[in-house]
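Teaching assistant's notes for section 4

Start the section by putting this record on the projector. Ask students to predict, before seeing the second block, whether VWFA domain-containing protein will look compact or extended. Collect guesses on the board.
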Amino acid sequence: MDRKHQVHNLIILDESGSMESIKQTIIQGFNEVMQTIQGIEKQFPEQEHFISLVSFNGLGHKLLHFIDPATKLKQIDDTNYQPDASTPLFDAMGFSINKLKQSLQGQSDYNVLVTILTDGEENASTEFSGNDIKKLVEELKQNRWTFTYIGTDHDVEKIAISLSINNTLVFNKNEADIKAMFAKESRARANYSEKIRMDRETSSNYFDDTE
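Reveal the predicted structure now:
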């Protein structure tokens, strides 16, 4: 049997204190995204999907999944998603992206989709600067890595552009808008897998075909 094309879904989820007010809606939406990935794997049997899920705040990073098969997903809930503290976004990105990059060294038949979801600007990183992350993103975009930035309560476009990320989605902090955001994100994932199947360019226009 031919080896399947690997698709790595790296999700970097803000768990800072300001996410507390939308915690339940985020948990629900995130679990739906996980189910979407499982459904996409069935829809595209030539692809093998893996999940890496990192949540972060000023207390540190939590590696909830790392290169786990989509079939083995555990949902997030109140016990493992507890918003608190500050927003060291650059450190979380640097840690997560470099960890996955190192694990994929020597492999060639894969795509990576990085999803960042945050409700605030960077305010606490000590190990990585915005410029460090920008260089990392620019390097990996040349190598079948796609980056998306979903945010609220800050200038999402400005921050994303400063990191060389051109796929952005802005939402408001209410239940209806968050649900609409997750629905659009799920549609974009299916389109992304279709682009891989058709061997089309995947690094840009991630959200554009989902209206």
